[in-house]
Structures are given as structure tokens and as C-alpha cells.
Amino acid sequence: MIELDDVKKAFNQGRPNEFWAIRGVSLRVDANRITVLKGPSGSGKTTLLSMIGCLSRPTSGRILLRSRILSGLPERFLTEIRRKTFGFIFQQFNLVKGLTVLENVMLPAYPLGLDHQPLKEAALKLLGQFNMESKADSKVEWLSGGEAQRTAICRALINDPEILIADEPTANLDTRLSREFMAIIRDLKQQGKTVIVTSHDPVVFEYAGIDTVVEMRDGNLAEA
Amino acid sequence: MKKLILRQKYLIDFTLSSLKRRLAKNLGLLLVYTLIVFLLASVMLFTHSLRREAGIILESSPEIILQRLVAGRHDLMPAEYLDRIGRIRGVTRKAGRLWGYFYDPAVQANYTLMVPRDRDLGQQEVVIGAGIARTRGVDVGDFLTFRSSDGRAFSFRVVDILEADAELVNADLLLVSEGTYRDFFGIPADRFTDIVLQVRNPSEVRKVAEKLTVLLPDARPILREEILRTYDSIFSWRQGIVFVLLGGSILAFVIFAWDKASGLSAEEKREIGILKAIGWETSDVIRMKFWEGSIVSLTAFLLGFILAYLHVFYGQAALFEPVLKGWAVIYPSFNPTPFVDGLQVATLFFFTVFPYTVATIIPIWQASITDPDAVMR
Predict the structure, then answer these.
(1) B192 DSSP β-pair partners
(2) pLDDT value, residue A103
(3) What's the gap in Å between the CA of A207 and the closest CA on chain B?
(4) Which domains does chain B have, with CATH numbers?
């Protein structure tokens, strides 16, 4: 489904503080699988994930989504692909403070210009699936860590993306909540989603439902 | 099309909630912005209505006023000049006028004494302007006593108070009979203050004035259009002074707006990053911020303009009265007819909303092109 071909990423290229975060990664991520990018802090997991999720472009190399080259597309097209194909769960959850849970969940759908009532119903249905319906009108800053993460998952799913991307999703959760999160991920896979997760948490990469674990070190795949 | 409208609606909804979330900051901005619009709109509305009122009042005044000059100074006009003018083609009426100024030490103010053309008054009767009635605290039936130029005391009974409609020009007016006027100021029977002429056809006024200059070389014709022009430039000049004074505050406002917009808080920048990461386009973010600016500036503009309208037309422009009306002791109680000029509103809109938009758009654009992966780092 997703192919990476000798992907490299440099920050501050051409300056004295030039830094190569990804040094030539070739990888294939299959559809309807859970893939974990594992590795220590600074190994390049998040940088690679942001390129897969169209949040940034590689300095060199190619990224293909269903044989379509993403790496050369202009910003506008990347945004559209990001909106339709990917759902994001961030490490800090990145919910918008001051808005309610429901508003946060609906936020990625605003640029699509959908009718309000069906959109609201879809958001409430998602919240219901994650036992968050009662919190729909609560402000996100009042939520516990687990609730905030479930809200972030609902937000990631609102546009019904094929691929779910989660960056260090358990970094701010205790073991019980981390296991709960992994159970959710497994359910999503059963619903046909492709999930890519970065983590250095054993609860994640040792989880039974994981299909592929890719280990990274210093911007390269560890086995490479 | 429907999608586009719904998309804008979502953006506006989100913008409104953003404004609500940063209530203190936005209220502060709205307050300053409203104040600026209020001040500018007050000056504009007020000077414009002053000019308009002056124009309306002067419309009924004679087309030409003839004054005699002696050594370049205004002097009394001999009555025989009326005969010397004789018949000039186009002049429908000519008459001598009696008027002058009187200083009342009791209230330290100057009054304008005048003999009315259309009103017969008794020897001791006087009609006064509303400004004098207020300042002296008198009403119809009360008496006013003044000391004439030769030291005699004259007592007048107030028989009427002039209409408040034209208070801008009659606030300090005293109308007395011709006999009383001549007696009070010691002006001989064969002298007038000036002569007024009515010319029906406006295109003949200049020609008549030329003929008068030839007939009476020591007299100076003053045309109504010149008076109107003088009023116009006086009010424009005063408006200019106030605008210069306000210039500082406008500049301060632009700096304030720039600072507010460029100093997007870390929270706002983070929010922009999140929106971009979850699929909002750069143009959506700019549009959202554009709505934010539009809502603030349009609200401020409307509020400021409505407040200015109330201030000028229902509150007697209390803030600018002394500067814009004149430096008289007796201030006219002036209630101009509410009037709004479309071009003025457009000008004001351009000078308030436009600078704000320009001041805010660049920093917002800079923030909106942040890489969406910033939220991952």
C-alpha cells in the first residue's frame, strides 16, 4: 500500500547545523496491517511517520501510496490526501483547548463543507463507540489522559481515513490505558484500517496483534 | 456551491468560538478599535452636518451684501446709496440693514443686535436667541436691561425666543425695533450697517456685483456663495486640525493591531499547526483569520459609527463642541438633522478597516504557512 524508496530527510540543509534525520529508508507498509516503528528517541521514527502521513516531504527518495508518488505533489494536493486518507493521533493529543469534545472531533471535517446534522451524528456515533458520548459537550481541558486520547482517536476517524497514524500514542498513558489503546487499534484493524504507530513502549511493540515491527536507529532501519 | 457556503459557515463558526476563547484580548482590541472609529466618525459626521446646516440657513439669506469701506475698514452705509444704486437689471429687492455687536459684561459674552425686516417690535420689546435665554436665565415676559454706548440704561421686555432650529446662527441674536436700535447705538437715521440685494438668477450675481463696484467705488459686495465657501473652509480646517490630532491615535492603533496580529501567541500558532496537520489548507487558515479580522473590524466599525451617530445627533457632540463650532462664550444648543453621507461612510471604512486588515494579514500569512509537521516535533 505504502512504499518508501531510499527516502532521506535533512533539516537545515546547506547550513552549518545541517542534520540528516533519515538516511535512506526503503520500506513497504501493507494495507490492513498494524505496523510499529520502534526505536530510541532520535532514531527518526517521527520524521519518517510525518513523511508517510504527508505532513512533510523527503529531501530525496520517493514515497508511493497505492503506486502514486506522493513526495513530489504540491502542498494543496498533499493536504487533500492527508485529509482523506490519513487520520492522526499525536503524542500530546493536540486537541484544541477551549472547544468541546464534539467540536474537536468534527474539526477535520470542516473544510469538507458537509451538512452539519449528519456530521454531528457521525461524530456522536464515533464518541459512542469509544464510550465518550457523555463527554461530548465537555471542554477538552477537563478530560483525563485516557479520555483525551479517545477524543483524539475519534477526531482521527471522523473523515473515515484508510490509514491511521499514531505518534508515540502511549507516551502519556499508564500501562492499563496503553493496553486499552492497543485493543482499540486491534479493533480498528478488524474494521479494515491500516495502522502505523511509532513507539519505544514495550506495551505497544510486544502487543500480540501487531503485524510488523520495524526497528530504527540513527535514521536507518536497524536490520539494514 | 452549497459545499462552499457550508465551508465558510464552519470557518465562521470556528472563528467565533476562537474569538470567544480569547475574550479578554479580543475585547481589548474591539474597545480600542471602536474608540478610534467613534472619534473619527464623530468628527466627520459633525463637521459635515455643520456645513450642511450652515448651507441650509444661508440659502435664505440675500445673494449680495454691500458694505462701505473707509480706509479699508467697515463703515456705516449712507441711506442715499440705496438711491444711487437705482435700478440694476436682475436685482429684485434692495434694503438697508441694521445690526451690530453688544458686549454684555454680566455674562461676559457678545450679543448680535439686529433690526428684523419681517417683524414689527415695540420700543421696549426684544426677541432673543435661545442661547441668550439660557445664559441669562430669562423667558418670555421677563426684562433685560443693558447700558447703551452713551451710558443710558435700556430695559427690554422679552416678547419671544427664536426657534431652536437655526440655533447655530441665532443663539446670540437680539432683535429690537429700528428706533430702539438707532437710539441704543447712537446711529443717525440716514445710516445703515450695510445693504442687502436679492438677485433671482444665480448666473447674474457676479455681473450685478461688478456693476455695484463701478457705481459705488467705496463699497464692497460680498456674495452669498463666498460666505458659504468661507464656512466650508473654516469647518474643513477645523476638521483637519482634529484629524491631525487624531492621526497620532490612528498610528498608535495600527501599531497596536500589528503587534496583536504579529504577536500570535504560542497557543494560537500551535492551534494553526494542529489545524493544518488534521487537513486544513493554508487558505482555510488564512480565511479563518480573515473572518476573525472582519468580524472584529466590522463590529468595531458598526459600533463606533452608531455611537458617533448618537453622540453627534442626539448628544450634541459634547466632546468636540468647543473646537468644531467656534470659540464663542454662548454655545449654541445645536441639534443637527440626522444625515449620513454614503461617500463619507465609505471613506471612514477605508481609513479604519483597511489599515487593520493590512496590518494583520502579513503576520497571519506567515503563521499559516508553518509546516504541518511542526505539531509532531
Answers:
(1) B77
(2) 93
(3) 24
(4) 7-58+230-376 (no CATH), 63-222 (2.40.40.20)
